[in-house]
Here is the input.
Amino acid sequence: MKLAPSILAADLTNLAGAMDLCEAGGADLVHFDVMDGHFVPNLTFGIPVLEALSKRTALPIDVHLMVSQPERLLDAYLKAGASWISVHWEAATHLDRLLEQIRAGGAQAGVALNPATPVDVLVDCLHRLDFVLLMSVNPGFGGQAFLPHVLDKTRRLRQMIEQRKLHVKIEMDGGVGLGNIHQVTAAGVDVCVAGSAVFRHQDPAAAMRQLRRLSTADAS
Here is the structure.
């Protein structure tokens, strides 16, 4: 299991410190939420923030574009230092073109799905993806409660991937924490995004280590 702390939940006055905590806790990636106030009703990080943080850490930065018309922003986020980029299926009119653009920029290409969007929409593009980001809350705000029905959706996606012998990773974002990370990974998730579970903890680095322990199959 790869762990991707979401800096949306960090102390926004000290994002450099948040990157240090991610490294200290053994994070595999840093999750970077981009919201445009249109596709979702909130505004978050822009290109200058990513550019500054990418120079501050050796960790790959996982950029989740919750934006309308993602094609307008892709090149700028790639140049700013994104290592992974996911665009929402619900916002991508020309998905093949976007995936090619992401890969041409040197990043891993992913598609994000809202909780109510079925995994079957990916049947004709699954082989083109490096990862699928399943939202386990409705996108737009941090700190929401996990939606359990997304676990069944995860199992269906894992079955699709295995039946076609693909090497597509499943990422999950929203409400993942100490109480459910074992269920999440058991359902087939490879990459867990954790925001509040990490940065609202009194010791974020210790929380990351505990999340990793609890995610394993023999966790008690």
